Amino acid sequence: MPTPVRKNRPRILENLLEAQKIAFAPFIFEACASALSSGLIEALARKPEGLSEEALRTETKLSPYAVRVLLDLLAPAGVVERVERNDEADARSSEAPLLWRSTPVADLLLFDDMTRANFFFTKDVNYEALAKLDASLTEGRPAGLSAFDPSWKTIYPHLPELPEAARKAWFGFDHFHSDRAYEAALGVLALARDFKHLVDIGGNTGRFTHRFLIKNPQARATVVDLPVQTEAIPTREELQDVVDRIDTFAIDWLTDTELHVSPDADLFWMSQFLDCFSEDEAVSILVRTKAAMKASGKNPVLAVLEPVVDEQRHAAAELSLAATSLYFTAVANGNSAFFRGNMLRNIFKRAGFAIRSEVPNLGISHTLFLLEPAD
Ligand SMILES: C[S@@+](CC[C@H](N)C(=O)[O-])C[C@H]1O[C@@H](n2cnc3c(N)ncnc32)[C@H](O)[C@@H]1O
C-alpha cells in the first residue's frame, strides 16, 4: 500500500518547485551546459540591460527553436529572467521584443571559479558514471568507472589515460580545491618549524612539492605516489626549476609495501589523500607512515590537509563536498568519501597519532591537522 502523503505541510508550492528541480535536475544541468557552450549565458552577461531572442540567435548561432527552449527552462530554473517593462503600453504590445537577462546564478556559472570547477567535474568526469550510482552503492565498487573503461578497478592509475576533457576537468577540480588551501597551509607550517625535507604522500603531479621547494630554497622533497605518477615527475615541465631537489618513492598503498624515505625527512604531508581510502585502509597507511616517521632522526611532523564534510561554514561548501563523495563511490574507488570530523580524528587515534593542532577554514573548506606519533 502506498505511504500516505502527510497533510498540512507548510510552503507546499515552494517545496513542489524544489522537488521538480530535483526531478528535472539533468535537464537543467544540460540546458546550462548548452547555454554555456553556445555562448548564450555570456551574451546575456555582457548586456545587463537585456537582449532580445533575435539578438541571442545572432550572438549564439542557435536556431529560434533552440534559443526558445533553453530560455523557457532556464527562467524557472533561476538562471535567466525576463526583463520587466516599465512602460505599460510597451508591455502590452505584441510588437515589442521580449528581453532577457542573466541572473546572479548565471554570473556564478560564468565567472565563479569554484562553480565552474565543480560544474565541469560533474559534466566531464561524473555525469555518465553517476547513472551507475545504485550499483556502486550496493556492490561497493566504482561501477560508473566503466563509462571510461570496463577493465579499470579504480581511477587513480588511469588519471593520465582519461580523455582530454575529463582529465582537464579532474585536475581543474582537484587543483582548484587544493591550491587555495596550499598557500594558507604553507603559512601555518612556516610558523611551526623550518622544515628541511618534505615527504609529499599522494603528491600526484608535484604541485604542492613545487610550492614548498620554492618557499624553502634549501629544502628537499620526496614525492610518494603510484608508479604512474612518480615516473612522470622528473620530466614535468612545471617542476624543472626544482627537480634536482626531488626524489620519488613509488608505492601502491593497497598492497602491504612499507614506506622508506630519507632519514632527514621532517615533514610528512598528505593533502586530499586519505579521503581516497576506506577508514581501515587510511589507518593502515597512517600506521606505515608512522613507522617511516620513527625511522627518521628529525622528530618529524605529519600534516594532514582535508576538507571535513560536516565542519563547513557554508551550505554551498558542505553540498559540494558531500556531492564529491559520490564521485568516490561511483567513479574513484567505491569505498571512500570526505570524512566527517569525528571519523577522521578517530582514524588518527586508531593509527597511534596525537593531534598537536588543528587549523580550520584554510582556503575554502580545508582543515590542517598537525600530528605526532602518540607512542
Ligand atoms: C585526490 S589526489 C590528491 C593530490 C594532491 N595531494 C592534492 O592535494 O591535490 C590523490 C592522490 O593519491 C594517489 N593515490 C591514490 N590511490 C593510491 C594508492 N593506492 N597508492 C598510492 N597512491 C595513491 C593518487 O595517485 C593521487 O595522486
UniProtKB/TrEMBL annotation:
Residue intervals of the O-methyltransferase C-terminal domain: 193-353
Domain of life of the source: Bacteria
Keyword DNA-binding: no
A Gene Ontology BP annotation from the UniProt entry: methylation
PROSITE patterns: SAM_OMT_II
BVU-1015-like N-terminal dimerisation-like domain residues: 18-80
Keywords: Methyltransferase, S-adenosyl-L-methionine, Transferase
Single GO molecular function: O-methyltransferase activity
InterPro entries listed in its UniProt record: BVU_1015-like_N (IPR049480), COMT-like (IPR016461), COMT_C (IPR001077), SAM-dependent_MTases_sf (IPR029063), WH-like_DNA-bd_sf (IPR036388), WH_DNA-bd_sf (IPR036390)
Record keyword Lipoprotein present: no
PANTHER family: O-METHYLTRANSFERASE CICE, PUTATIVE (AFU_ORTHOLOGUE AFUA_4G14580)-RELATED
Name of the protein this chain belongs to: O-methyltransferase
